[in-house]
Predict the structure.
Amino acid sequence: MARSRVAYEYTEAEDKSMRLGFLLIAAGLLSLLGLGCCWLRPALQERGGGGSANCTVLAVRQLGERFACTFSCGAACRGTARYPCLQVLVRTSRSSAPALLHEDERQLRTNPKCSYIPPCARDDQENSENVTYKQKYWKEKVGSQPFTCYFNQHLRPDDVMLKRTHDETVLLHCFLWPLVTFLVGVLIVVLTICAKSLAVRAEAIKKKKHL
């Protein structure tokens, strides 16, 4: 019995391999729990009451109101500039009521009154030119052509998005990489145990032959 217990003791390398495996298993499980609670659940809630529709532009206008944005011009250089508010009103195939178009959920949360937030430049005039260019795009290039938009009747019934931040690919990666980490950890532990078991059996068979 004493010899058997000694034979099954893991070497330093095998012990490190086992620790690495258990660490990866724990990291995978914690990542799944963390993403599920902090990110994946809100993302699914946003998608739960939503869907896609065909949108048609009704009106494109600039409001007189201007909003502040923060620009960066170096490691220790930051400042505030302003940009005009562009609103793109659309009609969806799901409802005859006009809705305000937004780039995505992130832009909607940042500024729910406007349809577009330009990359913040130091010069207010440059910000105005970027907004005017976007206004011409919706008026002249898109015009009355229908396009796909996304909505969520439960959270924001009066707003639609041009694209979704939380698409199927992002949700897939949220599950995929923690799951891969967990499975790699399990594989390392199993292979280490199997390799040790085979080594012990081989040693036992070798001893029997010498007896």
